[in-house]
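Box 4.2: Ligand-aware structure prediction
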Amino acid sequence: MAEVVIVSDRVAAGELVAAEIARLVRGRADVVLGLATGSTPLPVYAAAKRALAGVDVSHVRGFALDEYVGLDPQHPQSYRSVIAREVVEPLGLDPARVHVPDGASARIETAGEEYDRAIAIAGGVDLQLLGIGTDGHIGFNEPGSSFASRTRVKTLTRQTREDNARFFASIDEVPRHCITQGLGTILEARHLVLLAFGEAKADAIAGAVEGPVTASLPGSAIQLHPHVTVVVDEAAASRLRWAEYYRETYAHKPSWQGL
Ligand code: PGA
């Protein structure tokens, strides 16, 4: 099962995950990070800037989970722009080694396949950061996504477009389509780290961690992976049936086990 770590707040979550990222990069210079966008991973990136100070990150590689289709890559809310602004620049990564699916590709039908190939050539993702949508999506794999899916074009749910309207002037500006790593792609990463904060994520987290494994709640795909860490605050953990067990387990975790 997933290890569930309930932390006091998002700053503590960021520090915990950033320490693991720094440990990986210190151990192997060409670590491959799976990068997420949205509000959730921001505390990880803020803490990683501190945790990686003085560490050589020039060989670190990164692959973002997803991108909007039909949004100018220069738009401040394109995930290409967000990854450049929130990750590449503050952490000092080499922009040539950090990839975002190409939502503006003239060959969008095959862009997903090319992206999966690039991940494979890089040796696969070592640590994949994930947020979760209120509808249970991971990446932009909306309800109904196949657990075997590869990187491809998807249609966003109305709920996701409403959730993301806060980044745009209105919901009408939120693109309808996206290109996202598939659930099958995500499940190939060696370590999944799913973060969630706030009451609005409590149902999605309970479903992903403890609910039935179902394509209707794509986050439940994490139950098929042998190495998953779920890092949540109290509010996001509030509907977990086994919360006390998770707390006890983490409090007594053998020191030889990493994150
Ligand atoms: P958020 O989005 O981090 O902005 O809440 C999460 C997601 O949609 O995966």
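In the box above, the bound molecule is 2-phosphoglycolic acid. Residues 38-40, 131-133, 137 surround 2-phosphoglycolic acid (CB under 6 Å).
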